[in-house]
Amino acid sequence: MHIKTSNTILYCKKWKESVVFYKDRIGLQVTTSLDWFVEFKLNEVSRLSVADVSRASIDSNDGKGVTVTLEVRDIEAIHVYLSEVGLSPPPIKNHPWGAKVIHIHDPEGNRIEFWSKSIGPK
Predict the structure, then answer these.
(1) From CA 21, how far away is CA 1, in angstroms rounded?
(2) Residue limits of the VOC domain (predicted)?
(3) pLDDT of 49-107, one tens digit each?
(4) For residue 13, what are the domain limits?
(5) Which one of 58, 86, 91, 121 is at 20 to 30 Å from 35 when CA atoms are compared?
(6) What number of CA atoms fall less than 13 Å from residue 52's CA on the CB side?
(7) Each residue of 32-60: pLDDT tens digit?
(8) 122 belongs to a structural domain
(9) Coil, strand, or helix at residue 49?
(10) Number of structural domains, the chain?
């Protein structure tokens, strides 16, 4: 099997707020924009989309049981950026499996995890 791209779709009751969150606060580039569905580019082969649950055939999970995990190069720079855009991220955590991690939540309640590999002692 050869997968060309991947896309995670979040079905949102707070759709407009979620679009603003991912576009204007997180800073993701829009690749497709409809009046009920917006797709964002994560990298060359990965996408994240938000769909208005009132126009979709799938219901929202109300932020339960979903973590969108994004590996980044510089977790410290991400922490500064998230603070600058007013998202008030918690302190960076060092996990025993060798990752530095920040968790925030989108307007729908989905957990967004930014992480990078730890270098040196934890």
Answers:
(1) 34
(2) 4-117
(3) 999 999 999 999 998 999 999 999 999 999 999 999 999 999 999 998 899 999 999 99
(4) 6-51+66-117
(5) 86
(6) 10
(7) 999 999 999 999 999 999 999 999 999 99
(8) no
(9) strand
(10) 1
